[in-house]
Write a structure and sequence with these properties.
- This protein is mainly beta.
- It has helices at 38-44, 74-77, 109-113; strands spanning 16-17, 55-65, 82-90, 103-108, 125-128, 131-139, 145-154, 162-175, 180-181, 189-202, 205-216, 225-232.
- Strands 1, 2, 3, 4, 5, 6, 7, 8, 9, 10, 11 and 12 form a 12-stranded mixed sheet that branches.
- A hairpin with a 5-residue loop joins strand 6 (131-139) and strand 7 (145-154).
- The protein starts with 15 loop residues before the first strand and ends with a strand.
- 30% of the residues are buried.
Length: 233
């Protein structure tokens, strides 16, 4: 097999988009069709105001295979967690009435995994079981846990050569405990969000790859606050 010329990186495989929940749903825009809204702006990072000075947060990324996934390779059932630091900022948005300004951060997996033998097969990618749960824990600079994202997934039928995404959003709706919903249009203030990208370079191989975008409140969650969860993908 010939090596690439000096100074050039190996070419990346080409992937085709695959929806993980609804094959017919349009998702060309990374974070939906809420063009011009506060939510769309903060999710995409295209805010009209200047960001704050970045703070360095810590993320622990793990994955756990589903108990009913009997054919899962032993090494993928509960692989060692990955820890990385990432910068996050908040935006002082004048027309946003909510006093809790969320932080926005981007976890660069390509940089974090570079040079590690564990991730050498798929640069910038972490192999995961075909069915399971991605776990992302966010800690502030004082090492206090401010959010734990638990995102279930099922890629048992994901074709090779395709890519997809999963997005989980949390809306504050007041007091109490809110239900999980698949309807993103039922109101509430965005409090947390996570956007994960996946690819399948070969049959039976799925990777969490490229980057993870997170939105999270700048304080520990209030136990009395009702959070409605919306799943998209």
């Amino acid at each position: 097999m010939s090596k690439p010329p000096t100074g050039q990186s190996p070419s990346r495989p080409t992937f085709f988009r695959r929806s993980s929940l609804n094959p017919s749903s349009p998702h060309g825009d990374l974070f939906g069709s809420l063009v011009g809204s506060y939510e769309e702006s903060i999710l995409s990072g295209r805010m009209s105001t200047l960001p704050s000075k970045p703070l360095i947060f810590t993320a622990q990324i793990g994955v756990l295979a589903s108990q009913d996934y009997k054919d899962c390779p032993p090494k993928l059932r509960c692989p060692k967690h990955v820890q990385l630091e990432f910068p996050a900022v908040f935006y002082d948005y004048e027309t946003q009435d909510d006093p809790i300004l969320p932080y926005v951060g981007n976890l660069d997996l390509e940089s974090a995994f570079r040079g590690s033998r564990r991730f050498a097969r798929m640069p910038g990618g972490m192999r995961i079981p075909l069915r399971g749960q991605v776990q992302v824990m966010i800690k502030n600079p004082n090492k206090t846990v401010v959010k734990v994202f638990l995102v279930p997934y099922d890629f048992m039928d994901m074709p090779a050569g395709t890519k997809t995404f999963l997005r989980q959003k949390y809306y504050s709706t007041g007091l109490g405990v809110g239900p999980i919903s698949s309807n993103p249009n039922s109101g509430g203030t965005l409090r947390y969000a996570i956007h994960l990208q996946f690819c399948s370079p070969a049959p039976g191989f799925v990777y969490l790859y490229r980057s993870i975008r997170v939105v999270f409140a700048n304080r520990v969650p209030d136990g009395k606050e009702s959070l409605r969860v919306v799943l998209e993908g």
